[in-house]
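Ticket #4471: structure export looks truncated?
Reporter: QA, pipeline team
Priority: medium

Steps to reproduce: submit the single chain below to the structure queue and open the exported record.
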Amino acid sequence: MSKRAIIIGALVGVAALAATQSENDTDLEQHLAREDQAGYEGSDEDPGENSQGYDVFSEMEAERKAGQPVQAQRQSLSPQSARASMQSPTTTPQDGMHVRPAQIMDTQGFGRPLVAATMLIPTGWQTQGGVVWELNNSGCGRNNPHYNWAASSPDGLGMISLLPDETWQGNSSGIQNGNCPNVTISDPKQAVLSYVSRYRPGAQVLDYFDRTQDVKEYFKGIVPSRRDGFGGETRQWFGAGQAVIAYQVNGQSVKEIIGTSVLFTGMTMQGGYGMPQQHFLTIGILPGYAMRLPEAQFDLNVAEQIRKSIRPGQEWNQEMAQHRAKIAGINIKGARDRSRIIAKHNQEMSEIRQKSWESSQRSSDRMQRETSEAIRGVETYDDPMSSTGTVELDHTYDHAYRLDSGDYVLTNDHSFNPYEQFGQGAEELTPTQ
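Actual output as written to the record:
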């Protein structure tokens, strides 16, 4: 096995914001293999015709010119160059990457700054944005609050983004709700690609991964179908996916993986008095995650490792749970038929978000902890220097060390010598029993 290592400064945990890992990871491995052999062949996929084409990251991507043609280069990806793109100017192990913890802040919602989430980003990258509280009375689009956060490389070509969650509605009559479009997308893949087109307009879709199986645990509380006493029916379904896209930044070709999860709530009502049935649809889109790199340096494995490092802020999470419960109570009180269904949908979306955050916190016994670790692709190690006495690290490495500096080193090199590599001592960590 070749030598690999990750240096992680004050590692903060693994993600529950995005989907967990499953057998679909094989798709990513096959995708990488195809890149090495033949490069991308491109795709004629339409990202979604219901897109309104807005880009809330326009300030962060000012270098992109509106309507600029996007050219996807059919260039073979070198694994060596991909890994090299993440290397820090400081001392870094061979085939490794150097990352640091970053905080996503909410400075508006609860009268004091709170850490909404933490994650790892490449050393030297700068962050911008956070949680945004923005009143939206239109009935569609970005929810309040939502993420509008990014970390970017010094040259602006690399970027990690947390994207807003959204709500859309549609009906069979074709009548628009105010200025909102009548969105009737019922297929998860179409919904994900439509989402992609709103935040990356003009980008070319190169590949798509169905991640629905990865998020089944978070959506297990939904009711597939229920009927009322008047011939009406309400049913729910969900899906998740990630798209690999290509476009240009400052005249340079970049590739990006971007994805999200979607919950659909459909309601059928009997018309009566000779009127046809009416169908109503509410689409809830959870926060999205994206990572881009220069085309020759694009690496899906790096994007996945960064994604898995996302961890919620406990105090913010508790505040948000109370806020959502309060809003759900207001929405449900006095609501009728369709309004009640929509309110329940929003409440269920909040519960799903809450469950996804809490899933990374639950470890009441060893079996539950190890099951959770297997799902999330991590291993818990004893670390007396950590505030909790333990630390969660990526499980794909054979050895975990804590350097005297407080950084963590993960490696498959059985002969790893911290003095030779870093000029300092290290303690090898043992898995928690």
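Status: closed, not a bug. The export was complete when the record was re-opened. Leaving a note from the reviewer for reference: The chain is about 25% helix and 30% strand.
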